[in-house]
Design brief:
single chain, alpha+beta, 3-stranded antiparallel sheet, flat, 55% helix
Length: 78
């Protein structure tokens, strides 16, 4: 039992609050969210491919600049 508690604690501490928040935000909004230029390029491509393959399930891609000059984006699902 002690080993299980230690393993769960290690698992939870290995995830940063930002990663956990990112995961839950994606789940709640039903969107893909990127927080870097590289991630946004991948998300933009997957959003466009999804729109080509399934036009009825249109996905909206949005990109913006953050206060620290980094790029973030999202691809929202219906």
């Amino acid at each position: 039992m002690k080993l299980l508690i230690i393993l769960v604690t290690l698992l939870l501490t290995s995830c940063s609050a930002r990663d956990v928040g990112h995961f839950f935000l994606e789940e709640v909004t039903n969107s893909n969210i990127g927080q870097s230029a590289a991630a946004c390029n991948q998300i933009k491509n997957s959003c466009e491919i999804a729109n080509i393959n399934t036009p009825d399930a249109f996905r909206q891609y949005s990109q913006w600049n953050n206060d620290d000059a980094s790029i973030s984006c999202s691809c929202s699902n219906k």
